[in-house]
Amino acid sequence: MDIGKSFTYMFEDPNWVAKLAIGGAILLVGVLFSWLIAIPLIAASAILLGYMLTVLKNVAEGSTTPLPEWNDFGALFMKGLYAVIGSLIIYIPTLLIVCCIVATTSVMNNAAASGDQSTSNTAGAAGLVLACLQCVNFLYALVAALYLYAPLSRYAMGGQLSTFWDFSGNLSFIRTNSGNYIIAFLLGPIVASFVAGFGVIACVIGAFFTAFWAYLVTAHLFGQVMRNASGQTPVYPAPSMPPMAPPPMAPSTPA
Predict the structure, then answer these.
(1) From CA 155, how far away is CA 164, in angstroms rounded?
(2) Which of 15, 25, 34, 187 has its CA 20 to 30 A from that of 240?
(3) Residue 93 burial (CB count, 10 A)
(4) What residue spans define the domains of the chain?
C-alpha cells in the first residue's frame, strides 16, 4: 500500500481546490441546518458518502485522477443514501442497547429519588446493569466501526445493497485482507480524522474542509485494499511513442 499517497493524492488533481471546497461546503451547510429535523445533515452525509464511495471505486480500478467531478449530485445522493441505510442495519443492535440504557437510567434515577432502602437496592442493581450495558455498547460500536468498511468497500464496487447483510462475505473479505484492512482502518478513520480535527484552528469552519479531506484519505486507503484484493494494478497513461519510420525501399534494378 502507498500510504503517503493516500494523504496527498487529492492535491494532484488540477481542480483540487474547487472539489475540496465543494465537499467542505456541503458538510458545513448540512451541519448548520441540521435543526430542520436533521434532513439537511442526512442529505449532506449521503452526498459526501456517495462521493467517497466513488473515489474508492476509482482508486480500486486504478484511475490516475480518482476525484470525480461534482456534476451529478442526484447519483451521488442515491448511492450514499443506500449506503446510509445499509450502515443503519449494522448499527441496529447499538440503537437497541441505547434504548435499554435510557430505560435503565430512568429506573435508577427514580429509585434514587425515592430514598428508601428497597429502592436504594434497586438503584444499585440498575447502576450495575447500566455499566454493563455501556461496556457492551462500546465494544459493539467498535466492532461495528471496524466491520463497516468491508461492506462499504464491496458496495462501492458492485452497488448491491444486499452486500451490507452478506456477513459471511464481508468477514471473509476482512480475513483475506486483514493486514491492509487494519492499516487502512487505523490510518483513515482514526489518524486522518484526528489530524482533521486541527482544522478547528482555522476559525472553526476549517474543520469541515479538513473533515472532508479525511473522508478522501479513508476512501483512497480502502480503495487500495480493494485493488490489492482483486489483484488489479494501477492504470497509468501509456508513454507516447514516436511515429515509426517507413521501411527503406529497395532500389529498383533496370530490366
Answers:
(1) 8
(2) 15
(3) 14
(4) 3-90+148-230
C-alpha cell at 181: 484492512
DSSP-assigned letter for residue 199? G
Q: Are 222 and 177 in contact (CB under 8 A)?
A: no
- Which residues, including other chains, have CB under 8 Å from residue 213's CB and lie 6 or more apart? 10, 20, 192, 196
DSSP per position, 64-123: SS----S--HHHHHHHHHHHHHHHHHHTHHHHHHHHHHHHHHHHHHHHHHH-SHHHHHHH
Q: Taking the model in full, what pTM does it have?
A: 0.80
Q: Please tell me what DSSP assigns to residue 189.
A: I
Amino acid at 36: L
Instruction: Indicate the residue type of 247.
Output: P
d(CA 196, CA 94): 26
Residues 88-107: pLDDT tens digits?
989 999 889 889 888 888 87
Answer left, alpha or beta for residue 233, where phi above 0 means left and psi between -120 and 50 means alpha: beta
Structure-model confidence comparison of residues 71 and 254, the more confident one:
71
